Description:
The complex is a heterodimer.
Chain A: E1 12-16, H1 21-34, H2 41-54, E2 58-60, E3 63-64, E4 67-70, E5 77-87, E6 97-106, H3 113-125, H4 128-136, H5 140-148
Parallel strand pairs in A: 1-5, 3-6, 4-6
Antiparallel strand pairs in A: 2-3, 5-6
Chain B: E1 4-9, H1 16-30, E2 35-41, E3 44-46, H2 51-56, E4 59-64, E5 78-81, H3 83-88, H4 90-99, H5 104-121, H6 124-151, H7 164-193, H8 195-210, H9 214-235, H10 245-284, H11 287-303, H12 308-321, H13 327-349, H14 356-370, H15 378-383, H16 385-405, H17 417-420, H18 429-450
Helix pairs in contact in B: 1-4, 5-14, 6-7, 6-12, 7-8, 7-9, 8-9, 8-10, 9-10, 11-12, 11-13, 11-16, 12-13, 13-14, 13-16, 13-18, 16-18
Amino acid sequence: MDVSSLIKDETILLSLAAVDKKDCIGRMAERLLQAGCITDLPAYVQAVEEREAAGSTGIGFGVAIPHGKSSGVKRPGLAFARLREPIEWDSLDGQPVSLVFMIAVPEHQAGNEHLQILAALSRKLMHDEFRQQLQASDSATAIVQLLHE
Amino acid sequence: MKKLLAVTACPTGIAHTYMAAEALQKAAQDKQVPLKVETRGAVGVENELTEEEIGAAHAIIIAAATDVDEARFQGKPVIKASLAEAIKDAPKLIDQALAQQASESDYISQVEKAKTERKARQSGPYKHLMNGVSFMIPLVVAGGLIIALSFLFGIEAFKEEGSLAAALMQIGGSSAFALMVPVLAGYIAYSIADKPGLAPGLVGGMLASSTGAGFLGGILAGFLAGYIARFLRDAIRLPRNLEGLKPVLIIPFLATLVVGLLMIYVIGSPVKAVMDGMTAWLTGLSGTNAMLLGLLLGAMMAFDMGGPVNKAAYTFATGLLASNIFEPMAAVMAAGMTPPLGLWLATLLAPRKYTAEEREAGKAAGVLGISFITEGAIPFAAADPIRVIPSIMVGSAVTGALSMLFGAALRAPHGGIFVLAIPHAVSNVLLYALAIAIGTVITALLVNLLKKKS
């Protein structure tokens, strides 16, 4: 899948020390703001939190995929965080989360490209090797490369 | 090779639909089982399963958190699981799906499907003819069996006026059988021209009967009536306020007049001559010639198992009942029973040449065989036409020939083994049963000889 236009070095956090879910979402959203994907941080964070309230995006295997569609988003973006300490995410399998992919989508995004990216990402996440490689990668470039494969 | 299908779905459909799909695909790949997964997520339906794929599938796994339309999987084993189960334990679901047995109802529904598909493919004159035949058959069945009841009192008993035997003969012979050709013609025309075709068709068929043109004349009358009525419907243009008169007055009147006159002055006599000649030939038929006819009719019955060639032989034999010729009917029914029966026997004789599924299917084929549903052989023939079709043709041809040789006569056009139990419906019933048994055994031995060990 072509994620190179979505994910930038500054939206990749290889060792994030987040205390909880809310903290993690906020910290990752800040990076999307720095990368220029988001213009209105509180609006985007609110959209993500509303989505979490509707149903946890902790999909199991220690992975969460929070996402939000908001007018506070200028262009689609993807952030990745590897957590120093696993945190609770109300995951379906009850396990804490240590890998987080966050997606930002503009309100008036035509089509459902982001859904296809999430679908493709979900398929990849089912493979042990992929998750292990995410855990083992030591640079942002390596992560981008891994997603790109 | 067993092929599996799966459907994964959830109402939000962001991630789990695809995770479950991937998990199933991964597990199937590890087990080297072909699997296609339809995903119904937020992106919409992707990888949608086609009807052919469903038909060819061994079983279907549904992993969903929402309702999935299951009607399309009717007759197939379906395994239901939650998305979480599919994600966590996909290999177990694959194993479960592989362990499913194709049920007997599954086999019968396959046969049903093949029949409906054929019907949908029928077109033009063949479809019209089959429509007429299908309306005629109940009359022939009722008439034939009631005549057989009359024979219970003795073959000549109906000649005594006022007796029950005479009444039965009046119902079956002079009423039900007399309606055969008119109804055949009427419903051929009805299929072509709709309601306005029925009256000219019925009348044309009646005239075919009374002029001695028999079922051949009836078929001609039906087509004539139908096409004439349709032509009149399309050709006559009336002012709108008179248009209502067309279907109830103008078309029936003109079409019936034209068909009637044609039947009496043009078609009746030459077709009668053909029918008389054929009747005389068939009545006098014995020995080698009778066997050849049986051989041909038998092979036709098995050739396409309910298709046009089979129906041609069947229609020929059924039509002859109206001319009191009963031997070809016996040959045709016997030959139509042996293909599924022979395949059933084949799975019993050499179980190792067949998969567990095919052995189950064999039992169902046996039931269809004794009921004279030749289509019961189709799933076997479709799976291995080069070995199966020649085998069943040889078996049916032998049965047809033997039935003719034994002089077996059948008064009802359907019923399979169940009419054998009705006294006088079949003459020479023991030899007739022997003919069926011999064809069944030949079919089974040939199929097993040709089949390699699987």
